[in-house]
Every structure is written in structure tokens, then in C-alpha cells.
Design a protein that fits this description.
The protein has helices spanning 2-36, 44-68. It contains two helices and no strands. The radius of gyration is 17 Å and the shape is rod-shaped. The mean pLDDT is 95. It is an all-alpha fold and 73 residues long. 82% of the residues lie in helices and 0% in strands. It has one domain (15-68).
Length: 73
């Protein structure tokens, strides 16, 4: 039963980490890169939203690593 439990924990951690990666890429990184190609550059609201997405992605990654500590030996 421990193997099944550990696999479920790993799948959950991978899912949470993947959501963090998507938030980082779509909400944080892509708007910044596209604004650098525009005529106005990054605006303050865009920088705020990107910062929130970066922090959210980090929080999700940290949460996923905390789930991995629940694995049984």
C-alpha cells in the first residue's frame, strides 16, 4: 500500500508543480517578453501582475515539494 500512496503523492506534487510552471510561463514571463517588443514597454500594472504570477508559481512549487515530504518509506 505504501507504493500506491507514494505514487499518488508524486502525481499530486507533479500536478501542482505543473500548474505553477504554467502560471509562471503564461502570466509572468510571456507578457513581459511581449511588452518588450511593443512601443511602450512594460507598464506598472503588467509588472505587478507578473510579480504576482512569479510569487504564485513559487508558492505552488513550494507546496508541491512539501507534499513530497509526506512520502512513506
Amino acid at each position: 500500500m505504501d507504493l500506491i500512496y507514494n505514487e499518488r503523492i508524486k502525481l499530486l506534487a507533479t500536478f501542482i508543480n505543473s500548474i505553477g510552471i504554467a502560471i509562471f510561463a503564461v502570466g509572468g514571463l510571456a507578457p513581459l517578453i511581449s511588452s518588450l517588443n511593443g512601443p511602450f514597454g512594460p507598464t506598472k500594472p503588467l509588472l505587478f501582475i507578473s510579480t504576482v504570477c512569479f510569487l504564485g508559481a513559487f508558492a505552488l512549487h513550494f507546496t508541491a515539494s512539501r507534499f513530497l515530504r509526506r512520502m512513506r518509506q
